[in-house]
Inverse folding.
């Protein structure tokens, strides 16, 4: 269940404050009764009216998807390629959309939701939500190159924020390496460009974690609902960053 003003805002009736004004002025009914208090919570089955017009309720949905390769992180694709929405079954009737993006050839953890407020907060760099990627790169990065990634490198004319980097393994014969890189920004193709900046092109890339969330027990193409505790933890993480 969610607060009435949040549901109205999510349905596009008005902003959160505007929805609060509608409620306190007596213009909103829930199941036929006028509601003027802001603490009222509603569920999906409740009937809401504003000025006599019914409001379609779409309750918040939070999904964690293991994105496979050759799938685009959009709702629609002009080139008719498979999208992440195509991976969901008919049980998901709400209009969800991806939180940020993963490249067409990148695999890994992608969140989908219809909660616009949380989606915007999770993708905004000021909240510094960590995302860990594991990349297979050409060549074996030196300690100095890994240190460069940690300090930040220049891509597209600006320095990236400090990151975490770790050499996981290397293959001297094939001259390739597996490197973990944790960032909290989300520039276009950022991870690939960061490795390119230190002289290593990315052959394969996977996002393994998003904040405290991971892909444990999942296969490419699988998805699951976040638990209420996980949603609460994400919101708590954002709230903690807001207080800094």
């Amino acid at each position: 269940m969610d607060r009435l003003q949040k549901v109205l805002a999510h349905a596009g009736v008005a902003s959160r404050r505007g929805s609060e004004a509608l409620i306190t002025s007596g213009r909103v009914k829930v199941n036929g009764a006028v509601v003027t208090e802001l603490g009222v919570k509603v569920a999906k089955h409740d009937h809401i009216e504003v000025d006599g017009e019914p409001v379609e309720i779409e309750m918040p949905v939070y999904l964690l998807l293991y994105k496979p390769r050759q799938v685009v992180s959009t709702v629609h694709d002009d080139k008719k390629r498979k999208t992440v929405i195509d991976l969901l079954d008919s049980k998901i009737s709400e209009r969800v959309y991806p939180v940020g993006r993963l490249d067409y050839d990148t695999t890994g953890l992608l969140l989908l939701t219809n909660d616009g407020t949380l989606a915007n907060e999770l993708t905004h760099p000021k909240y510094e939500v960590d995302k860990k990627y594991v990349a297979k790169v050409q060549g074996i990065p030196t300690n100095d190159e890994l240190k460069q990634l940690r300090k930040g490198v220049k891509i597209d004319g600006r320095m990236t924020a400090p990151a975490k980097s770790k050499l996981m393994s290397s293959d001297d014969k094939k001259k390739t390496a597996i490197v973990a890189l944790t960032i909290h920004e989300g520039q276009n193709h950022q991870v690939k460009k960061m490795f390119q900046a230190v002289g290593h092109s990315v052959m394969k890339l996977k996002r393994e974690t998003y904040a405290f969330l991971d892909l444990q027990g999942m296969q490419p193409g699988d998805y699951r609902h976040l638990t209420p505790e996980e949603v609460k933890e994400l919101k708590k993480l954002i709230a903690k960053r807001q207080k800094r």
Summary: DSSP finds six helices and 17 strands in the chain.
